[in-house]
Amino acid sequence: MRIIIIGAGPGGYETAAEAASRGIEVVLVQDGPLGGTCLNEGCIPTKALCAMDAPDQTRKAEIIAQLQGGVAQLLRNKLITIVPGRARLAGPRSVEVDGQVYEADAVIIATGSVSASLPIPGADQTLDSAAMLNLDHVPGKLCVIGGGVIGLEFASIYRKFGSEVTVLEFCPNILPKFDVDLSKRLKASLAKRGITIETSARVTAVDNGTVRWTKAEKDFSVQADCVLMAVGRRPNLASLNLDDLGIRYTPRGIEVDSDFQTSVPGIYAIGDITGGMMLAHVATAQGRRALNHICGQGDGIDFSVVPAAVFTVPEVATVGKTEEECAGMDIAVGKANYRANGKAVASGQADGWCKVLAGKADGRILGVHIMGAHASDIIHEAAVLVAFGATTKNARDIIHAHPTLSEVLYAAIPNV
Ligand code: NAD
Question: Is pLDDT at 121 greater than 90 in this prediction?
Fold first, then answer.
């Protein structure tokens, strides 16, 4: 069997490696460096900056190069052919790259997403996240448009570097899709660290370092040396030739079924291009599901249980349902603070909190929301509990090592 994968981000390259390990021949088409947005201008360079006290472009480039080497190594397999260039679908089972046509039994589109912007005057004076990662100086005043994941990660990074940071968020809460309690606690914690956050703020223009916005019909402005536009990302649909093939899509992404097959049998789409949860690990999991379908195999991947982490200071992480999503259900809510945790206090990381939601009738753990040091690691225990349908009793029966931050999760389990 042979498949063509378009795009070598975490969706495409992980699926290529997995396919080759199953004895499938892979043509992997990549326009740009291996690793896609995640490795080159997303997850990894931001985490590199998170670990620095001042922007160090040399160190950032070394980290990316080292990990690109790792991806190249993963793909070093006689069954995988990497074709550099931009792919265009030429038929239901064929793809053209620079005039050369490749045929296969199935095609997987994994071309990711690009930064979105606002249709406001002066939008061209703002930086997107990719440009922001290449800044070699620390702006005195940074204004971030959008209090979502990207906006808040950069706000935290540049606050640590010494910038005066203002975040302008359109919705009533930052991280609008997250648990509201979690979002409010994060806002308070970021404010304590000196980040100014305005919610329900509609940005109207950027004018040579002045960002204008309105709130409750009043006009405001803030001065900035640098303005980051972080209002979401949109699927990278350009030049794929979807219309000629009759592949159904909207501006929000390519339509797929539960096996990530598009409206044209044999053509699959995974990751940001489908417009769902734009997360590297979701793209990888979707690739695995698509590959299983191509191979005629089933799997038990539960796409309703997706751990997500935001690398602010402090970190936040979440899995399962938010309290708002549990509206109308009879639930018990348990909470615990980092300041009551020995390891957190001893290590000077006492700013944090954890909330566990469980069904009152059956005790099943439905959702876990954490703000605090190492939230992005602790969340995986919660993911296991939610994925396996564990009850609060099951969770309380698990001995937790002392003294660890994981005890915060244990302490937050409600008594039902
Ligand atoms: P996002 O959707 O998380 O946040 C965009 C924010 O901009 C939202 O809060 C939205 O309400 C706000 N916004 C929209 N229009 C606005 C306006 N006119 N004025 C002010 N605010 C406005 O998108 P993002 O932060 O750009 O990230 C893009 C994608 O990348 C997301 O899907 C995100 O999950 C993903 N991502 C994930 C991680 C991570 O998991 N750690 C890191 C970076 C990006």
Answer: yes
64-97 pLDDT, tens digit per residue, is 999 999 999 999 999 999 999 999 999 999 999 9
* Nearest atom, ligand 1, residue 230 CA: 26
Nearest atom in ligand 1 to 308's CA:
40
Residues 6+ apart with CB under 8 A from 304: none
Question: Ligand 1 centroid vs 84 CA: distance in angstroms?
Answer: 30
Contact 227, 198 (CB under 8 A): no
Q: Domain residue spans in the chain?
A: 2-115+233-294, 123-229, 308-412
Which class does domain 123-229 fall in? alpha beta
Rounded Cα gap, residues 185 and 372, in angstroms:
10
> Identical fold at 2-115+233-294 and 123-229?
yes
CB 126 within 8 A of CB 227: yes
Residues 6+ apart with CB under 8 A from 200: 169, 170, 171, 172, 215, 216
Look up the CATH number of domain 2-115+233-294: 3.50.50.60
pLDDT in tens, 59-70: 999 999 999 999
pTM score above 0.85: yes
Q: Is the distance from the beta carbon of residue 278 to the nearest atom of ligand 1 less than 6 Å?
A: yes
For 158-191, the pLDDT digits (tens) are 999 999 999 999 999 999 999 999 999 999 999 9
414 three-state secondary structure: coil
Contact 146, 154 (CB under 8 A): no
**Bridge partners of 313?**
none
- 161: CA distance to ligand 1 center in Å? 22
Q: Write out the CATH class of domain 308-412.
A: alpha beta
**374 catalytic residue (yes or no):** no
**102, two tokens:** 């490749």
- 26 vs 211: CA distance, rounded Å: 48
